[in-house]
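Hi all, long-time lurker, first post. I run a small reading group and we've been trying to get comfortable going from sequence to structure in the token notation. Rather than ask abstract questions, I figured I'd post a concrete chain and ask someone more experienced to write out its structure so we can walk through it together at our next meeting. Sequence below, copied exactly:
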Amino acid sequence: MTDRQTKDPQEEVHQPEAPKEESPSLKEVLIEQATEDEAPASAKFTLKKVLGGDILSTQTIRDQIWVILLIAVFMIAYIANRYSIQKNLLEIDHLNTRLQDAKYKALSSSSQLTEKSRESHVLDMLKNNKDSVLKIPSQPPYIINVPEK
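-- Answer (accepted) --
Happy to help. Here is the structure in token form:
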């Protein structure tokens, strides 16, 4: 008999077959190379790890990407808010300067009007103007009493 016939048939079933050596796919090779250099992140953050740059590993960045994006959004909002506040403060300062100028002009105009409407000034103008039919009264005004019915 041959060797095959002398062997037990159950032995053939239990014997593992030799694995076929297939070359790994390109995707598997790239994934292996991408994760090969990364050391597992430890739970403790020490000063040495922070200063050494270990905190900036790829896995840490991936785990904290939403926190990083949230911080970036807050920073942009803070900068934009500060810029708009500074712009508003400059506008307020400019408007206050214009208001102050308008107050000074109004005060000056009011002062000139008061000066020109004084009785002594009006009388001098009437004397100098010969065309005027208005005269200075020589008698005091009369008080007229009207009896009530």
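A couple of things your group might point at:
Residues 38 and 57 are 8 Å apart (CA to CA).
The helical segments are 3-6, 9-14, 26-36, 47-52, 58-63, 65-116, 119-128.
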